[in-house]
């Protein structure tokens, strides 16, 4: 299954993507808000091995790579966590290679994933879990119509450090209104 936009293809990650993923995910500074930064190519292999091979399986993560149509280069990845056993909620997260940030690629890929989740998989609610310092992600989800629902103080231990967590959410009826604007 492939999701397409004007400039991008979102396709399921494969083990053959490991080197390209490692190249941008290992950058500690650009990925400082991520819960996972691989130290070795083997870390990427383990990560890919843990991902669900099927989309829309409750309580699993499914991972897409984001491919620039023009160059056929992987420029990032987008994960979807199918949160609950009723399978009506999903969590979404996006990571872009620093060389491709601030060009609208994150907005384009996340928007396409939201459309897919609401219109094809019939989800009711999509959430994003964001570090309060990650202003780029906060602006992205707010631009797409997500609302801030919670600020949890030192609720996650990431890379050995307790950090705050902002929860943003978007419900299907609000996306319908926004997409018609």
Topology, element by element:
Elements lengths: L2 E2 L3 E5 L5 H8 L15 H10 L9 E9 L5 E9 L6 E8 L8 H16 L4 E6 L4 H9 L3 E12 L2 E11 H8 L2
Parallel strand pairs: 5-6
Antiparallel strand pairs: 1-2, 2-3, 3-4, 4-5, 6-8, 7-8
Helix pairs in contact: 1-2
Description of the molecule:
- This protein has 181 residues and is α+β, with helices and mostly antiparallel strands.
- The protein is 28% helix and 34% strand.
- The protein is built from five helices and eight strands.
- The protein has an eight-stranded mixed beta sheet, with helices on both faces.
- The chain has a single domain (3-179), classed as Aminopeptidase (3-Layer(aba) Sandwich).
- It is globular and about 40 Å long.
- The mean pLDDT is 93.
- α3 links the parallel β5 and β6 (125-130).
Summarize this structure briefly.
By secondary structure, the protein is an alpha+beta fold. 28% of the residues lie in helices and 34% in strands. It has five helices and eight strands, in the order E-E-H-H-E-E-E-H-E-H-E-E-H.
Mean pLDDT: 93
Radius of gyration computed on alpha carbons: 16 Å
Share of helical residues? 25-40%
Beta fraction of the residues? Answer: 25-35%
Query: How many domain regions?
Result: 1
Shape descriptor: globular
The major pleated sheet works out as: 8 strands, mixed
The CATH fourth-level homologous superfamily: Gcn5-related N-acetyltransferase (GNAT)
Q: Give the class from helix and strand content and strand pairing.
A: alpha+beta
**Low-confidence region ranges:** none
CATH overall fold name: Aminopeptidase
């Amino acid at each position: 299954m492939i999701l397409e936009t004007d400039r991008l293809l979102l396709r399921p990650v494969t083990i053959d993507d490991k080197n390209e993923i490692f190249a941008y995910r290992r950058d500690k500074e650009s990925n400082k808000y991520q819960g996972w930064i691989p130290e070795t190519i083997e870390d990427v292999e383990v990560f890919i091995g843990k991902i669900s091979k099927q989309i829309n399986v409750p309580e699993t993560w499914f991972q897409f790579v984001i491919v620039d149509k023009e160059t056929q280069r992987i420029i990032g990845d987008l994960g979807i966590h199918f949160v609950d056993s009723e399978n009506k909620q999903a969590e979404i997260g996006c990571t872009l290679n620093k060389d491709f940030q601030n060009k609208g690629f994150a907005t384009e890929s996340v928007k396409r994933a939201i459309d897919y989740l609401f219109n094809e998989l019939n989800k009711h609610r999509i959430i994003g879990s964001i570090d309060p310092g990650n202003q780029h992600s906060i602006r992205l989800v707010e631009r797409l119509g997500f609302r801030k629902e919670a600020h949890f103080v030192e609720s996650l231990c990431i890379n050995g450090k307790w950090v705050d967590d902002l929860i943003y959410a978007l419900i299907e009826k609000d996306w319908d209104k926004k997409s018609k604007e």
